[in-house]
Design brief:
The protein is of the alpha+beta class. It contains one helix and seven strands, in the order βββββββα.
Length: 105
């Protein structure tokens, strides 16, 4: 499961990509990254999750807010996340149009 990291105002955020088999869609999740071994940061619990269907181009991608607590996510981080979602939507649509099915990250 690949992920990308970004720092903003001293906090680390991660965007994680994985295939959600029950939904037949790619999941793109935004989390606040947590410290891992050494100086590395790893994805934490999802704050936002987008599902990008890859089997039916007629289905719309969706975004859900995760967790019962209110969380503050900086605008620039939300924008970065949505750019990642838009890129995944484009990859899936291109792959579907070329007859290749779903598109891996």
């Amino acid at each position: 499961m690949p992920w990308e990291l970004r720092e903003h105002a001293g906090r680390h955020y991660a965007v994680l990509f994985h295939y959600a088999l029950p939904d037949d869609a790619w999941a793109v999740e935004l989390s606040e990254a947590v410290p891992g071994a050494g100086t590395a940061h790893l994805p934490g619990e999802a704050l936002l999750a987008a599902l990008v269907p890859d089997e039916d181009p007629g289905l719309e991608p969706t975004v859900r807010v995760c967790g019962p607590e209110e969380r503050v996510v900086p605008y620039e981080i939300v924008r970065w996340f949505m750019e990642q979602v838009a890129d995944q939507v484009e990859r899936c649509r291109v792959a579907f149009a070329s007859g290749g099915g779903g598109a891996a990250e």
